[in-house]
Amino acid sequence: MAGVTGAGRRVQPVLVAGLVALGLAGCGTLGLSRSPEGTGEMSNQYFDQGFRGNMLVSRIKPVQIRLPNGWSAAPTGTLHNNADLEAYNLDENMFLVVLGENREAVAPGNVEEQASVYLQILKGGFSQVLANQARTKVERIGSFPAVQYEVRGNVSEQAVAYLHTTVEMGEDYYQVVVWTPDDLRMANADAMRAIVEEFRATQL
Known about the structure:
Blueprint: H1 7-21, E1 45-50, E2 53-58, E3 63-66, E4 72-73, E5 85-89, E6 94-102, H2 111-123, E7 128-135, E8 140-141, E9 144-155, E10 158-169, E11 172-181, H3 185-197, E12 199-201
């Protein structure tokens, strides 16, 4: 696999591969900043630094996520033009986007059915599926119903591992998508699961 000799050299290919599978290659700027505060322009989100830690809060939807050490906010459009939240850990080659969609905008059904729809869309961006999708034991994120899958596929000649979680929160479905190079999936598995668990509704 090209571009796998050193983290700095494979960040760009894996980022692009992740975006291709999300149907977004070429949509956003791919200039990556290593600033721990994510100092690039963030019109879609903002930092709330308080006793709860570094909370990345959406300006669009009533959601937020606590960023563990090593994670930074991504400037708007870096990972998705329509992201409600976007962040990355460049040192460990992990990327995260949160996408919210009103339930009225999707076909009628429950969170299980919607998760299946989202999963098929994601896999539609693969040139090859590397392994059967694996359902995890996660059934809730915080107090909200959730369905989570581990998915692996080749995208733009890159092997990528995704952790895809669909969360039903109020009138919206959220996709919380984390990805990393497939050869780092085991090393990054705990960190990927941990950041998804930090997703929550905005505290009013």
